[in-house]
């Protein structure tokens, strides 16, 4: 065990790739040396999906390079390693004679199981500290010991609660002597011109300042947030929030500063509600992580569905009978991004028109979205499927009406090559038995004419 004089501690980064407002990172007041580590774990196959999309991988690598630069600016460094957390961290702890390890909590069954395996593999204390949420666990437990099943009561309970200000950057102990930081692999692709945002803490700060204050785009957020594309139609802050390059409290602080300077509006209040939606999904996933992946959700509300490989392949490839859905899927794969409205349209088509298990779609989004967040992604898919937080029992979007509302002149569909050759309604299997795409079994879902 290391003595107090030479005490070395370790911080394991996960979905908190930032220096500013990172309470878990600065909770090393007794350390003389600090080892900062990021472990990139192999992706696991899940619902017919393997690997990580090029744009999501690119954004992560950029974020890690930015984090390493930020740490070096305060006298620290980042050790990047590939492997499994529960195998890599114990070896590093032994090599550098680490006395204590800190890690921030993140939602997800896999993420929480990884921490449990790590705990059992270590011979030194592991502290799991609060993550990237608006409210600390102690406050939330006091305000609502039982988390409401729907968003509205959650929102009403927290809308007027005080959100703590972000932490100021403090000093960090230097890295251990003899640390050789491995080079972070360079991205294999570039950002698509249609969504040319780079990963990292500095890029996040620039985007927040530009969108909120320079362009004052928050003033028309309520009216433009459903646009299918546009540099300033939405905040587009979710990619940095998802991997923790930006803290959600920093966004809230900027919003409150904006309201003090320019006044409150329906749009600014709606942005705060969106932050609370994120908070709602985060706490649902933290308190009951397993139900996030059940087909019927926490209430085990099962609906009829099927898996037809050809239909799923067409949806993934953007080769369905609906041009707008095709355009959205092409946009997703090529840019790593899709608007909130676009995600609802594409999800509704897979669930309601194709009659498929929603988790296949959620897994495909997980692969490609640069703002992939386990709580928000799976929580929103459950919402559309009617097995999550929607009190109306699901959302069934009228595809023709959605196209008329959000792509009236067909520009978006044309730009993203949504029109394709019609596909045969029936195919034959190896025994020449005709197979048809199953009729829609989502009769319980409410048709949404928004």
From TrEMBL:
Top-level taxon in the UniProt lineage: Bacteria
Q: Where does FAD bind?
A: 221, 234-238, 371-373
Q: Which PROSITE patterns match?
A: PHR_CRY_ALPHA_BETA
Coiled coil segments of this chain: none
Which Pfam families does the protein's record reference?
DNA_photolyase (PF00875), FAD_binding_7 (PF03441)
GO MF terms held by the record: DNA binding; DNA photolyase activity; FAD binding
Q: Which InterPro entries match?
A: Cry_DASH, Crypto/Photolyase_FAD-like_sf, Crypto/Photolyase_N_sf, Cryptochr/Photolyase_FAD-bd, Cryptochrome/DNA_photolyase_1, DNA_photolyase_N, Rossmann-like_a/b/a_fold
Q: What protein name applies here?
A: Cryptochrome DASH
Q: Which organism is it from?
A: Halioglobus japonicus
